[in-house]
Design goal:
2 domains; 6-stranded mixed sheet; 15 strands; 7-stranded mixed sheet; Rossmann fold; alpha/beta; 13 helices
Length: 384
């Protein structure tokens, strides 16, 4: 069944289809309508879940932690400052090995105060140990939420689904809503290996000594590495059931490309339009979209970028004093490669500024006329 849905209502549909049992909610623009719809369904009885109204995003994640530890499938959503307020408990969730799924509607961080989109809010959490998925369409948002529960509950690590604030959250698109019975087959009821149970007591999250702490961190890292295979398996089985496929790194017209434009989120669709335009003009150029940021698609990047001469990474974020964050990650992956491409790091779209075809074309024109970047950070939409 197809419906025309905003990105936020698409999230709500995905949560209902996933048969989430506990929702902890605190409003923040541009996320608010996600939990408003879930609250409406909960009140009408259409969604059978425990809905917890909390006083902050910190409390929302604390509630999710308690419910997940008790064995429930849980959900929350947030944006920007709300995600930052959760930061302490994002670390706790990973250390406790809880398969919580969170949707972050990307919004730029204050100050100055803003409600518009960039990716610094979620990328600031890159070292917490959460899986991170960056979506381009509302359909991908729905499918990613369902897959995230499947993946997280298998590996016992939490997942964060990102969608661009307003570009997706408040934009209506056609979304295919799968049958509940098909989702139930793909995503069975959660069976937690250990739960808070007075009849089966365990000690949870107590203090530890350095050697055991290090062992636990080692296991988290090994699980994150193994998650690559779990992600691919979940995507393959999702395609077999629902007919839609996703990869950690999505490509467009790269078969003979000498230049590659890399982006994430909704910017990727604009990049593909630029590639088509440039191809018509005779340039051998392609595009790649980073869909999964954690675990980072290391092998896919090494294999795909090996025959490319120049790679331009357009980040909708900035690590002050360094460069764009995805650019840094790609540079670290290719550092040891003998035949690595020439890398250009661009910054665009901060605070929701439009990234147009002209913006992305400027990145290509710069790469096409330079044998190396003149500066470590190249700003595409700033006049200096």
């Amino acid at each position: 069944m197809k419906k025309i849905l905003t990105g936020n209502y698409t999230v709500s549909q995905a949560v209902k289809l996933s048969r989430v049992e506990v929702i902890a909610a605190y409003p923040i623009t541009p996320q608010t309508s996600v939990v408003e719809k879930l609250s409406e369904w909960n009140a009408s009885g259409e969604l059978k879940a425990r809905f917890i109204k909390v006083e902050s995003e910190h409390s929302a994640m604390a509630s999710c932690i308690g419910a997940s530890a008790a064995g429930a499938r849980v959900f929350t959503a947030t944006s920007a400052q709300g995600l930052a307020l959760m930061h302490e408990l994002l670390h706790w969730t990973v250390g406790a090995r809880l398969p919580i799924v969170l949707v972050n509607v990307n919004r730029a961080m204050a100050a100055p105060w803003t409600v518009w989109c960039d990716h610094n809010d979620s990328l600031a959490q890159r070292d917490t140990g959460w899986l991170q998925f960056y979506c381009e369409s509302n359909q991908e948002v729905l499918d990613s939420v369902i897959q995230a529960y499947r993946i997280s509950e298998e590996i016992q690590l939490p997942s964060m689904i990102m969608m661009d604030g307003f570009f997706l959250s408040h934009t209506s698109e056609p979304v295919d809503i799968p049958d509940q019975k098909d989702v139930d087959t793909y995503l069975p009821r959660r069976e937690a290996p250990y739960t808070l149970d007075v009849d089966d007591p365990h000690t949870f999250y107590g203090g530890t000594v350095p050697q055991y702490y290090a062992e636990m961190r080692y296991k988290i890292q090994k699980t994150m590495e193994e998650a690559r295979g779990v992600v691919n398996k979940a995507a393959l089985e999702f395609k077999e059931t629902f007919g839609r496929s996703y990869n950690p790194l999505e490509f467009y017209r790269i078969e003979d490309a000498g230049t590659l434009i890399v982006s994430s989120g909704t910017m990727a669709g604009t990049a593909r339009c630029v590639v088509d335009e440039l191809r018509d003009e005779g340039y051998s150029v392609g595009a790649a979209r980073i869909r999964i940021f954690r675990p980072f698609p290391v092998e896919e990047i090494r294999q795909a970028f090996g025959g490319v001469h120049k790679v331009g990474v357009i980040d909708r974020n900035i690590s002050f004093g360094q460069t764009g964050i995805i650019f840094q990650e790609i540079k670290s992956v290719l550092y040891t490669e003998k035949e690595r491409p020439l890398l250009f790091g661009f910054i665009a779209g901060l605070g929701g500024r439009d990234v147009t075809m002209a913006t992305i074309r400027r990145a290509f024109e710069y790469m096409n006329t330079h044998d190396e970047p003149e500066e470590p950070v190249l700003w595409l939409d700033i006049k200096r």
